Amino acid sequence: MTQELQTIIIVKSIVGTRGGDSRGEAQGTIWADSAKSPDLLLVWSPYQAGFQLMGKPSIREKANLFRIWFVQTILPFLKKHGMDYFEYSADTKELWEWFRRMFPEIPFFISKQKVFCLTEPTVNLMKPEGYHFERITDAFLQIRYRDKEFILDEIRQAHGNRKADFEKNIIYTAIKNDTVVARASMLFRDSGFGNISVFTKEPDRRKGLSSYLVKKTVEDMRERGLVPIWDCTEDNLASERTARKCGFRQIREELIGGFATKEITSSAVQAKGR
């Protein structure tokens, strides 16, 4: 890397966290040190609200240049997007630590994220009573259900607008009294894996809605040959319980780290990387 990292592509595909494959189905930004054969990449996913660092051990000597580039490029990028913190994961623990050592004077927050996978047949779950369940399509969005906004906002985060290809993207919703109260979605996929997320409004929690919606989502994913993936932070016990109830099993843990951007001052540009 003889010059600053360059923005080589802004695409509708995003690098995931499995195996370093840059093919996917969500919008994001990729920076790399080379367009043809990169050794170092930083990937931004608005849907996941974080960054993924990808690279090889040979990038160790690039720390100082990367630090300068980071302050000059990524801090303004975060400010433009209204974010006052930087959060990241990395393909390897070595790469994660490499970035952490680059800012030794800054207090980092560190947490662990659990990753689950579902390879067994879908668990048979009872359909909760008193609710109507429907897969979201373009036609669904034309129906005047109340409180659709949190679903539309999720689509916007994943795709940069409120449009989605519902043949590729899967969202199931629970409706009660013409009001959307819960959803399970697969809006991010990578290398044959599909990442599931769920949300249920407080008055309708603990009624089996998330589990049943996940079951429906998984069935559609498997018809498309996708392996369901679930992740949550180690302190999100409710999410982990739902995953395990649906038959998911933990396959690994990932380090998540970051810091408040206010911790980096202008002097950081001149400081040496570690």
Brief description of this entry?
With 274 residues, this protein is of the alpha+beta class.
Radius of gyration: 20 Å
Percent range of helical residues: 10-25%
Helix and strand content put the structural class at alpha+beta
Q: Main beta sheet, described? A: 12 strands, mixed
Tell me, briefly, the overall form.
elongated
- Helix tally equals 6
Strand order of the largest sheet: 1-2-3-4-5-12-6-11-10-9-8-7
Question: How is this structure best described in words?
Answer:
There is one protein chain. The protein has about 270 residues and is an alpha+beta fold. It has 6 helices and 12 strands. The chain has a 12-stranded mixed β-sheet, with helices on both faces.
